[in-house]
Amino acid sequence: MPASVRTTLRFLFVFLLLAVFWLALLPAPEVVKLVSWQDKIEHAVLFALLALLALAAWPERPLPIALGLLLYGAAMELAQSMTAHRFGDPWDWLADAVGLLVLVPFALRRR
User: Fold this and answer.
1) What is the pTM of this model?
2) pLDDT tens digits for the chain (111 residues)?
3) What is the C-alpha end-to-end distance of the chain, expressed in Å?
């Protein structure tokens, strides 16, 4: 992959990390729930997409990506618990971790 593409992916990844964190601290919008655990599905999908984008930007680093995103998810839940309009949920963090399982095949392939 050309260096310019990789640089663009890295910029996009960092931008998305900042945007997602900022959005996570805003009051939660009212959304139509199709299933009771929809929020957990959204967390898992978001973290899977973040992980895949990070892997495209840093293909040789699946384990540091996973650990970094786990810490990011924990920091987000902690920050939400410090607001008056959101709350931190350890189950959301677990859903984040489930989303990161998309990295397992890439980590195993490197071994």
Assistant:
1) 0.90
2) 788 999 999 999 999 999 999 999 998 778 777 888 899 999 999 999 999 999 999 998 999 999 999 999 999 999 999 999 888 999 999 999 999 999 988 877 766
3) 22
Do 99 and 46 contact (CB within 8 A), yes or no?
yes
CA 39 to chain centre: 13
Distance CA 29, CA 100 (A): 25
Q: What is the C-alpha separation between 107 and 103, in angstroms, rounded?
A: 6
Helices (H), 26-103: 38-57, 62-81, 90-99
Count the neighbouring beta carbons within 10 Å of the beta carbon of residue 79. 14
SS3 14: helix
Buried b (16+ CB within 10 A) or exposed e, 37-76: eebbeebbebbbebbebbbebbeebbeebbebbeebbbeb
CA distances from 29 to 26, 40, 86, 98 (A): 9, 16, 11, 24
